[in-house]
């Protein structure tokens, strides 16, 4: 099976490359994107992205969109979307991207009982990802390039801050944690706020795995891009500036060492 | 069934929570729970806890609510069987694999879905119902419309947080702690980065600290919407906090259900609860999207007080024996409260030390003192500074 690329474009791009499909963040049902697309503007047979956790009314509204449209597949976070598609018998490929919840083979296999593929979380190491890719009961998918989200709040944190201090509201803000100087970019819309790493995630090393269903490439932060050239360079492994590999080589801990032990 | 559900970080807190009126407690074991650095409960503690709770026809729920990495799944099945053997009343889980494992292996455990799953709509709830959960702890972001719709569509037991700290993010949708401190938030290591401060290109500094949750004014409506369990946050909190919050909510729930709540009692309850907390609170998402007034903007803004003066150890022959917790002195006006007494005011005229010598001030932490008190008291009662007079509210 040949891996296909699901590319989130920064603007409408004519599809030429045969191993690429476009994935469009659906306006009104996404958070943390600079570019979103009204469903009428999304080409038929494309994939749509719905990354919000959906309240009852929003899920009903999304259901109406899905029934009217003819998308090929959907990438989603909220399991209500999956249940809607199942109940209505919609012909849509289901791609679950539970951002922080697909961290073990057993969890991923459980999700795969219900959907077509699962995008693995990026909170685990390359070794853990390799294990899941090689042993999962169906081909899994990987997010391999783009902004990496570390926090999703329902609150409008940026405009709350801007209103509080009487600053112009622009719904994007660069942040630097004061002690560690770790840099983030916050992006907000009416449905919430997402904090991203200021650097883009580059996980092309994960493409060494065989049997990946989709490789997600997110170009939402790009403003000016010759896609064909960029993508050719990208596939050929050309180095990209300002990137991070997140936790691929950095295992997290959750128990602090006992007091007095060497750190 | 209406249930008041309390947090318990250890056995002592569990006993206080149940004695002060909780119908059930939720606790973490020493593995697989989201407060990895708390004291937590060994299997032997869980056995004692369950036995204690069941004596009073009350329940114990155990959190098994981390997001599992592969290495964490080792020993999980054995642990779940142990919990079942102990007779805990339910496990609270967020990872779908744990639900599947319990059902496939036919482990006799009731499964509650953790708020970490952030359920906000009826169809997500149905997905989990079909997997085998019997209760859902809804996302703190759920509105009254969401609660109503989920209840109507699923008939599931619904549990909602009513009091305590809030995550700034959707629960389970934040790994800031992982990034900044390498401590894994979704496996119990959260370092609460959302309460830290950040520089921006603009002045002043950015922070996103949320105020706490407090649903006192909406309890009656929540009962009508079909909420079954009213949950208080705070497994890391102390006994005074737990006793005060649980007693207050117990009285409110009982009076609301008995239709005996007097005008002014809600305001009095709010005054007591707000005094006990170290941050301001609001109803958060139930009615509207929280805005700037539901946040702090200068990092952590927590105020602690020294209201908890002493813990009752014993009462004999008109004298109460107290373990001091904060300074008090002759002349102070205080209150005694407890699980089985009406709160009453008391003016300190005499303090005796352990040797029955009269002293003016109790000023050493944990010192044992005796006070003459006419009203009989019991172990587990508490003495606090009198700040509010209930009569002023009625």
Give structural notes.
- The complex is a heterodimer of chains A (263) and B (394).
- In chain A, helix 1 crosses helix 2.
- Chain A is built from six helices and twelve strands.
- With 263 residues, chain A is of the alpha/beta class.
- Chain B is of the alpha/beta class and 394 residues long.
- Chain B is 27% helix and 23% strand.
- Chain B is built from ten helices and 21 strands.
- In chain B, strands 1-2-3-4-5-6-7-10 form an eight-stranded parallel β-barrel, surrounded by five helices.
- Chain B is globular and about 65 Å long.
- At the A-B interface, helix 1, helix 2, helix 3, helix 4 and strand 7 of A face helix 4, helix 5, helix 6, helix 7 and strand 8 of B.
- Strand 8 of chain A pairs antiparallel with strand 8 of chain B.
Per-chain topology:
The complex is a heterodimer of chains A (263) and B (394).
Chain A: E1 4-8, E2 20-25, E3 47-50, H1 56-68, E4 73-76, H2 79-88, E5 93-96, H3 105-112, E6 117-118, H4 126-135, E7 142-153, H5 157-164, E8 172-177, E9 183-189, E10 192-202, E11 214-218, H6 227-235, E12 243-244
Parallel strand pairs in A: 1-2, 1-11, 2-3, 3-4, 4-5, 5-6, 7-11, 10-12
Antiparallel strand pairs in A: 7-10, 8-9, 9-10
Helix pairs in contact in A: 1-2
Chain B: E1 3-7, H1 11-19, E2 24-28, H2 43-55, E3 59-64, H3 76-86, E4 90-93, H4 96-104, E5 111-113, H5 122-131, E6 135-137, H6 144-154, E7 157-164, H7 176-181, E8 198-200, E9 212-214, H8 219-225, E10 229-232, H9 239-258, H10 265-276, E11 281-282, E12 308-316, E13 319-324, E14 328-329, E15 333-338, E16 341-347, E17 351-352, E18 358-359, E19 361-362, E20 368-372, E21 382-385
Helix pairs in contact in B: 1-2, 1-9, 5-6, 9-10
